[in-house]
Amino acid sequence: MERARQISDSIELGVIMALAGGFMDAYSYMARGGVFANAQTGNILLCGVHLSEGDWAGMVHYALPVLAFAAGIVIADLVHCRFSSALHWRQVIVLLEAAALLAVAFIVPDVAANCVTSFACGMQVESFRKIHGHGIATTMCIGNLRSAMQNMDDYLLNRDRGFLENGLLYFGLIACFAAGAVLGNWCVGRLGHMAIGVCSGLLVAAFAIMFIDRERKPAREGAVAGRP
Fold it and tell me: What is the pLDDT of residues 67-94, one digit of tens each?
């Protein structure tokens, strides 16, 4: 598999973002009252369960993170379309996400902490949707699992190595998400609410590697190759 021309489309960045995605879900679930930061399907389900039982406080506990996640998607799209700076718009999103998660470490009420975490997840899911041109998710696994199995099935039917590589890519992202959850739970056990600061550090690392400009390298190499 060739390397991505853009670092935002690269496996390296996808690995870091998937680690962060798993970390956030483990943190919000284990340390902040059993709410999913990313898996909004689960939150909507539990919101409906509490609504059916007449538990209004429980319903709000799960409904607010869903709304915050949706708001994160909107903000990411606005940054993409309207914001201009010396930084790439995805770098701006990663910085906002890292700052939001660092703030979560100091927020005491779980409802508020979950809303900010889900807001960060919403920005991430809207901003990082491809690796090597393939649709991926770094904050959830169901779509990646479907794509992985579809590609593996296509490989078995056609014996095209490209399908195998794509399937392994999706399985690798799922493994990174799971590793992020393991890391998140381990950190929660030792750092409590402050554990989310580790995830913020992962995003700072993602921000740093996004300064790599792969699009210029082929041009330089071509110029060197063309010398007499």
Answer: 999 999 999 999 998 877 778 899 999 9
User: Which tokens is 108 given?
Assistant: 């005491």
| Per-residue pLDDT, 224 | 42
**Is residue 202 within 8 Å of residue 16, measured between CB atoms?**
yes
Residues facing residue 135 across a β-bridge? 130
Q: CB burial class (10 A; 0-12, 13-18, 19+) of residue 89?
A: middle
CA dihedral over 127, 131, 136, 139, signed as positive or negative: negative
Q: Which residues make beta-bridge pairs with 130?
A: 135
Whether the Cβ atoms of residue 117 and residue 101 lie closer than 8 Å to each other = yes
Instruction: Name which of 120, 39, 90 is nearest 212 in CA terms.
Output: 90
Residue-wise pLDDT tens digits, 175-194: 999 999 999 999 999 999 99
Q: Which run of H or E residues covers position 194?
A: none
Measured between alpha carbons, how far is 20 from 162 in angstroms, rounded to an integer? 27
Which alpha helices (DSSP H) does the chain contain, by range? Answer: 11-31, 40-52, 56-82, 89-104, 110-127, 142-158, 161-191, 196-209, 216-225
